[in-house]
Amino acid sequence: MSATTKKLITKSLLEDGNSRFKVTYELTGSSYTSFQLIDEMTQDTKTFDQFSTHYENLTIIDSIMSGIGRKPQTDFYQIVIKPVLNFSNIKHEYLKTESADSIETFAKRLKTNQNYTIIFLSGDTSISELVNNLPVLIDETTKIRKFIKIVPIAMGSANALANSIGLGNPIETFDNFLHGMKRTTAFPLYKVIFPNEKQIIFFIIFSMGFHANLLHLCTLDPKYSSLGVERFQLASTEILDNYDLNLKLEIKLAKKTIVSQFAYFALINTPNLEEKYIPSPQ
């Protein structure tokens, strides 16, 4: 097995003439293992209203157990986001997940007559927890539907949404946000209704068999969850060697019903499951 490579990279933030921050970060394999914010601005060059864009109900949700977790050197919010937003006069709220139901509680208390912009420092799971617990955002007085804008900053074990819309680099994503996010992308949501009438909303993947077990291991088993993309290869070996993957499914389509045995069943809604993992079933 080849050794994991380490890279030290520096990128600019808030670049405009001579006014800018820089972020130096260490990339170990596919994991961001340290961040450092460098303030190169002088009192003569600081313009505090330069990037004071208004965001309605801007909230940062920091899923502190996602990815490799948050250590003093990997705390992207404290090291980069907080000082830059304060400098830019951008008001925001910060939610650090304290328990498994932190995001569910947050979602259920959102006001239905207001718009929100939510930055996620997480993977896909935290975003899923939000969309599966949202109230219907309609102003009861005006009957106008309200909106939530989601900015995924890829800090989790699985970052399919961010990678699929070109937001795989946390520093570049945050810089794009500061400059107004020049483009938006529709958020495709699908509902699954189970035979017992339980419902879930998904936007990345709905799977059973091999892939479902792979996600379970890579997300919840500490042996794998702290690794980079290599965790998928290691966990796959364990599943193929030790798991029973003979799954019988009945799939009802519009014009026919398929009954068959499956080892791998997945409905995939994004082009990328990781930055360089583009599933292409044949």
From TrEMBL:
Annotated signal sequence range: none
Molecular function per GO: kinase activity
Domain of life of the source: Eukaryota
Record-annotated DAGKc domain positions: 81-180
Segments crossing the lipid bilayer: none
InterPro entries: ATP-NAD_kinase_N, Diacylglycerol_kinase_cat_dom, NAD/diacylglycerol_kinase_sf
Protein name per UniProt: DAGKc domain-containing protein
Originating organism: Maudiozyma saulgeensis
Lineage: Eukaryota, Fungi, Dikarya, Ascomycota, Saccharomycotina
